[in-house]
Specification:
The strands form 2 sheets. This protein has a 4-stranded mixed beta sheet. Strands 2-3-6 form a 3-stranded antiparallel beta sheet, with no helix packed on it. Strand 2 and strand 3 form a beta hairpin. The chain is of the alpha+beta class. The chain has 2 helices and 7 strands; from the N terminus they run H-H-E-E-E-E-E-E-E. The radius of gyration is 21 Å and the shape is globular. It has a single domain, classed as Immunoglobulin-like (Sandwich), CATH 2.60.40.1620.
């Protein structure tokens, strides 16, 4: 049988090895640029769904309340940026519902139909604004 000291040493070695392994890098982090203009909201669960058979490419996500005050009306401005930083496509969408204080755990959903699929190196810039467009 193993001695308690050697068990402890083996566990410590395993923990040290796992602490050195880097987590895989998510490609979503480099695809999106977000800004909330100091509104008490945050973008979450951002993803791009590539359309097939004539369906458009869709950007989908959630807007979560981060503060205590409710956000009643808002919209999301978007821009598709080429690798050089030039805007290829831009517009705005309303989100599906108000983010109210009493339902702070429920996100507000949004989706954006892009005119063209994203090319290699392009990014989507999302900006949240309080109020109507």
């Amino acid at each position: 049988m193993f001695k308690p000291a050697s068990n402890f040493l083996a566990i410590l070695t395993l923990l040290g090895a796992t602490a050195c392994v880097a987590a895989p890098h998510s490609s979503n982090d480099t695809m999106f640029i977000t800004n909330t203009h100091a509104a008490s909201v945050a973008f979450r669960s951002l993803r791009i769904e590539n359309g097939t058979d004539g369906q458009p490419t869709v950007v989908k996500g959630q807007i979560h309340l981060t503060g205590r005050d409710p956000v009643y009306v808002g919209h999301v401005d978007y821009a598709v940026l080429e690798a050089s930083g030039k805007a290829r496509e831009q517009g705005w969408v309303e989100h599906t519902s108000a983010i109210r204080l009493r339902q702070a755990h429920r996100p507000s959903l949004f989706s954006i139909n892009l005119q063209q699929p994203l090319a290699q190196g392009e990014r989507v810039q999302l900006t949240y604004h309080i109020g109507n467009h």
